[in-house]
Design brief:
By secondary structure, the chain is α+β, with helices and mostly antiparallel strands. The strands form 4 sheets. A 6-stranded antiparallel β-sheet has the order 8-9-18-17-14-15. The radius of gyration is 34 Å and the shape is elongated.
Length: about 450
Amino acid sequence: MSLDRKTGIHVAPDQPREDYSEFLTGEPLADRKRVAMLLETIAEVNSSVEVATVMQNVARKSIGVSGAERAIVMLFDEQNVLRIVLATDTKGTALGTNVQYSHSVAMRVAREGKGICLIDTANQGDISLGQSILDLKLLTVMCVPLRVKDRMIGLLYVDSKASSKEFRERDLTLFKALAGQVAVAIDNARLLQHYVEKQRMQEELAVAQKIQQSLLPRGGLQAPGLDVFGMSVPCDETSGDYFDYIRRSGGRLAFVVGDVSGHGIGAALVMSTARALLRAFTSDDSGPAAVITRLNKFLSDDVETGRFMTMFYGEVNLRERTLTYVRAGHNEPLVYRRASDTFEELGEGGIALAMMDDFDFEAAGPVVLEKGDILFMFTDGIVEAMNAAREPFGLGRIHEILRAHRDLPAKDLVERVRAAVRQHTGTDVREDDLTIVVAKITG
């Protein structure tokens, strides 16, 4: 910022200079009063960082500087539409946002970017004043653009009826000087408000992330003959991925891996709803097909149109070492057979959840599991993770890792896959959530 030595007004280096000294009369006492009024007004307008307070100061001091009866502050919104944000009279009474004013004057200033001072509206032949001036019986109207560098952020408008003071060109120059400082104050207040709102949102998202992560199992689980470990890494603050272990009656252990379409808070809410429902529906002796069919019915009724959830739900009978499962549109889990050094894909299944409320899911299996076998469950954030050449991680790399490290515990297998994905992409920035659950048969 540089200082205009004639007026004491700060001007941005790249902001067009105006000769604000035109508002001086040449009379020392009068000029001292006008400069003091301007500086006092600038100081008061900049005395707050609250947008609402800044607006009120702007409107009140605009009336004080100009001697007008009404002041209106108009700002461009995010769609570049000019909207009234505050209108007030000499008593400080709020006039609402539907107050009448000279649209023709405001639109001309917005279009041309130059201030207008109509001293006698009855004799203005160079501008179409519109019916509003006649209806309001306005004698004088003054309107100037609010600029920040090369951006017009809005307009400052004042007017008066025939009984009030007539504006002069010198008033317009003073008003322009005020508007230049007002625009910076308004813009700074809005930027600060956006920053505060962003910080608040980030804090709320951090809380949401902690709550959501608390709903997921904390790492591993030990069950007779099973070594289990799971991990979920969100790409945003909150995730639509989900995994769980659920102990069921009759010596059964359920594994769940799900993926809600989309990201962010909406996906996280669906994920949390599905978890709560699934926990409730597995409290009785229902089989996998009945559980998932019921879950689908509830999600179809509650989830917004266009959003869905894929899921793999499998139950291991811990005594018989058999797996019965339902796959609802989810990626096919892998079973690595230690004895034959081969892989099987659990491909049977139905549609994703929340797509059809009357779909009856059927269970597949039982799949016999033997000592050394590895059940690998995942979401598509693993196989679709891209490197710089846009090459996906793919299933082949998962096969190689499981085969090469088949003797490691479940936790180490998960971490080896996670590290390989990170190495493949070259970054921790992900386009999708990433979830892995490994169940290794140990006995």
